[in-house]
Amino acid sequence: MQIAQSPIEIRLLGPEDSSELARLAQLDTAPVPQLPLLGGLVDGLLVAAHSLATGESIADPFRRTAEVRSLLAQRALHLDGVHPNGSGPR
Fold this sequence. Notes:
The protein is an alpha+beta fold. It has helices at residues 18-28, 66-80; strands at 8-12, 37-42, 45-51, 57-59. Strand 3 (45-51) and strand 4 (57-59) form a beta hairpin. A 4-stranded antiparallel β-sheet has the order 1-2-3-4, sandwiched between helices. It has one domain (8-80): Aminopeptidase (3-Layer(aba) Sandwich). It is globular, with a radius of gyration of 13 Å. It is built from 2 helices and 4 strands; from the N terminus they run E-H-E-E-E-H.
């Protein structure tokens, strides 16, 4: 039996996401990481957030978020100009 997977949306988070970030931080029992933040959404719901400034992240502990967190970290590296092999400008 195959389980259908929902698409993962990755985007920069803004002021309009503050209530969702607060909800996520409360679930993770951690503070909201330093801005700017990338968010990972599944079915329109914010399930993880990753700080572009510090690399810290928070995620919903009641969902499977390992893949989302990994994608956010990879995207953050791309935005920072670092290639997966470690080369490139920083």
